[in-house]
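for the writeup, i need someone to sanity check this before i put it in the appendix. the sequnce is what the collaborator sent (i think, or maybe the updated version? ugh). structure was predicted straight from it, no edits. if anything looks off just tell me and ill rerun, i have time this weekend
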Amino acid sequence: MDFSLFYFANHDGGALEADKYALMLDSARWADRNGFARLWVPERHFHSFGGLSPNPSVLAAAFATTTERIGICSGSVVLPLHDPIRVAEEWAVVDNLSRGRVGLGLACGWVPNDFVISDLQAQFGSRKRIFEEKIALLRKLWRGEPQRVTNPQGEEITIQTVPRPLQQDVPLWITAAANPETFRQAGAMGANLLTHLLGQTLKGLAEKIAVYRQAWSEAGHSGSGTMTLMLHTLVGDDDEEVHTLAREPMKRYLAGSLNLASAHLASVPFIKNASEIDLDALTNEQVDQTLEASFEKYFHMGSLMGSYEKCLDTIDELEGIGVDEVACLIDFGVKEEIVRASLERLNVVRVLSNPTRLDDSAPAPQPLDRARDDEHAQPH
């Protein structure tokens, strides 16, 4: 099982907060030193939920110059919002800065307000078709295949994006919610898959992984693809202690996402019978009960939160259904000093989950120390 770090903070602080990105940068360097597989950064617009990353390539460039080994991935670029030419150009820069460590998670998008930054507002309902078309073009651009385009003077010209990336083909992940068709689509196109447990159970996920792997095999791709699962993560010595530490921060975090969804419930892929829900009719007590139930579900059935034993049991279960990588979402509102301590324990879980990887070449565990990280803040 590979272990990665996933960032998706609900940033509701003021503009003058100087250390917005300290935990990201410190933990990224720590994960690099300790043998984690990847760093994942999202694309979010116009909302505090995930709002520290409106363009994942910018943070990815920062990671690229301050780390040496770890993969650097978008989680995810909302491709229908963008011209694939710009995506290929930006991430080719990051691929060069990182010496070939880029991966691209790509998403179709579901929040209508996000589409004000694109020229597809009238085609929001067609975004899935457009998504697949843009993926095909992005792959061609990345490989350096010339493309015919028309300039504002009506002239047809041939373009190739520069700089050229170091990787001949960029590793792709398709982001899926709970729709089995997206799993099938990713498998058929030979892309890896990034998913979560919002609105789905492990049993349901296992069935969709089977759909993904079958589509992969039927399309004739070699290997079996990488199945990455994002999980909210907080590791401690005792289940009850972690439950207490995570409960209120996680409820506040979930409230942020509920606020995001409230205006667009009919288009939210992970809320059952979304169009029938009237949030304005809910009392504060009902909202709190909903958040409380959601937290309990996450803690017990949909996260990497708890003691070493609980987390190791979860990893065993995930391996059993075909998950290859756990992307550990660490910045969901728990106090920073608690998250930093949890990361050291997460590394214990990672090591114990991969005993066959323990050899003389494996990096010795390194502490997450702010002073030490500041010494490593310059590009290598």
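The chain is about 40% helix and 15% strand. The radius of gyration is 21 Å.
thx in advance!!
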